[in-house]
Design brief:
With 105 residues, the protein is an alpha/beta fold. 44% of the residues lie in helices and 15% in strands. It folds into two domains: 4-47, no CATH class; 62-104, no CATH class. It has helices at residues 32-40, 62-79, 86-104, and strands at 4-6, 15-16, 21-24, 28-30, 44-47. α2 (62-79) packs across α3 (86-104).
Length: 105
Amino acid sequence: MGKQLVGRDNVEEFISQEEQKLYVGQTLILTPGAKDYLQENSIAVVYGEQPETKVQSVPKSEATSRADLNGKIQQLLKGDFSITDSKLITEVTQKVMEKLEKLQQ
C-alpha cells in the first residue's frame, strides 16, 4: 500500500471526530498546510496507528435506532454536504438504509 498525502483540503477526512485527534500511521504524510489546520483547530496529532475502538451496543428498539439513524443521515446530508433538496435527501437516506440492511444480513 502506498503513502497518502494529507493536505489542508482533505485533512478533515482523517480526523477522529470522537477524539479530536489525527492518527498519523506509516501510510500518511502531512503537508505543512495540514499541520497548520490541525494547530488552528486544536486537533491533536498522534504518531502511530489508531487503536481499534470497541463498539458497545446499547439495547434499543429497532424502530428507535432506525429513526435515529435516519435523522443522523439527514443531518449529515444537510450539514456536511450542504444538500437542501428534500427529495434528494429522502432518496439518499433510503438508499443508505437499504445498503446498511443488506450488510447486516
